[in-house]
Amino acid sequence: MQNSESKVQPDCWFRKGRVQHCLAKNYPCTHHIQQATSEKKRSATQKRVRTQSTQSTPGSSSVGPIRSDNAPRPLPYPIATQLPPAPTQPQPSRVGAQTSTKDLLAYLFSPPDPRSNSTGSNPYAEWGEMAYQLDGENWRNEFALDLIEVFFQIVHLRLPLLNPAQFRVRFQASLRSSTPPPSTPTIDLKVRRSNSPQTHSQSGSNHNSPKSAHLLPHSDCQPIDNALVATVIAWGAKFSEHPLLLADRNRNGGQSLLGKTLIDRTRSLAEDLKVHRVPTADHVVTALLIEPLQSQNPEETQGYHGFWLTSAIRLLLDLGINRKSVTTSIEDYDIQGTMVFAWWMACLADAYRSVYYRRKPLLDDDDYDIDFYTAEKTMPAEHINTDTSQVSPREQLQGYYRAAHALARICRQMSRHLWRPATESDGVPLSTVWGFMNSLNQWKDEYYAKVGVPPNFPSNWDFISCVTACASDVTYHIQWIVLFSAVDDYGIQEQNDLVRTADSGDANTAKHAEIEAIKKKLYDDTLYSACRIAGLAGVLTSHGYMRLDSAVMHVSCIHAGFFLAKLGRPEVQNCIAALQQYSHAYEEMTERAADIKRVYDAAVSGEFDFTHMASVVPRSGFHTDSMMGGHHDHHHASHLPHSPLHHQSVSPQLQFGIPGVQQAFYDQPGQYQV
To answer: Is the pLDDT of residue 627 over 60?
Structure first.
């Protein structure tokens, strides 16, 4: 009793003090009003609970037995008349770095949003009649393994950033393991100062080097980063011919809703795991793989905006991969080769993105000092692959990347000179246009015969050799279209000045004739380039290669397609057909093909859509020679290697993927290097 009084007395004193305080200040006290209101609400609540308890029956849907005052009461949510069906497996919780691989797969393949489900019984119905099998763990794991194999058969050949043998072993170990991944990424580059005596003795780097790096030892049995696993699986779903995905596409007009869901969940997972902020080797690879995975339409909210490419470059800079002193100190030569190769992929993509989408490049020529053989120069002899009969895709691509880097440097200069506000208002200086035309011709003289498509396809060419040569070929030719478009939009600066001053002297007349001659030369080279792109696109489309392309050829087809369409050229049909086949994996290309078709129809009907280059463009493109365009290149089609879609050999590890691509790359130790 004494304890009860001690608890009540301070409360009474507090209320009395509040009343006296109000009276002292001549304020009307509201404490009694508040207390009376609270007591009224409390009495009404207790009365309502007692009434419901006495009127309830065993079969009714009442609140239930009365709880004690200290027990939590259920929230007064309205009772739903019909609950949505729930899968037998529980909905996975938020995925994090500690989530196991099994739970990650359960999240990736969980049913669509129940609010969009109108079938009532099968939560997977939106993904086709076979998708319900994703509810089973064993079936779900086998499906994920199949998508991973498709990734290595199709995407990895163009973007060889992973070690297939190591990835398979680690993924299988993750499925068998009951422990979650470590809190820190398995593959991690630890940056350390090279001016430390201990660091210098361990790494052997130069004292003048600002940073050096090493890789923490890791085991093949350690789990893989969750964001990287999700990215690989989403890539596999984009190209897989699994019966489940075929049923999904058949139900949804040729597009896979499951594939779209995987891309969205992969992107959200990467954002949640801070892939774009935490500098690790796995995060670099993940960011580079996510960028071409998503929609390539910059006008879409979730489309291509260069965010993940920019993030990958910043992660590489944070790791110091742009410095030779850092890359040579990485102790694991497999990861050293991966990081060097990732740097060059990001470096080239940044340059091409800037010139295609009219942006300033993020990198400059003096931002790095590494070369393509940085890893090979520091590699012990026992790690160097001396078996010339087994050449990895990365080694095959080194010649291509050397030529691509030279072209990328031209692209950077074009972006910095063409996409400036001053250029937009005043025009492109004539010396700038002529200088870029000479630079492109010099690149052609030095590299084109080595990396471009030869007059006849060699009989020993495989799929990767064919598509790589075509990619380097069209990447060179698209630069002419970009330069032509800039001059057509902004004009030549000297010619714009002549128009503004209205000076018709003899000197100005001669200058005008010189400018027109250069513009005519630019038009001829651009027409040849556009027809060349259309011809190669037609050959690749006829063999089914465009449906297997991982966001490499589409930009060239779009630029060449619009240029030929505005001229009313019949070669544009090759670009339209290529983009329509491209839409098998990238749905947005259907709309781009339709846009090109509309421009072509308008040009055929007499519309003329050129501005500053109108003086050198013929009014009727149909009467101009094809300039070695599509018809010139079609006779090579019979010599192309078979597409993986048409090949009959099936890998024993792939049941429903796209067969025909060899799996021997990087299967032997020491072959995964630059």
So the answer is: no
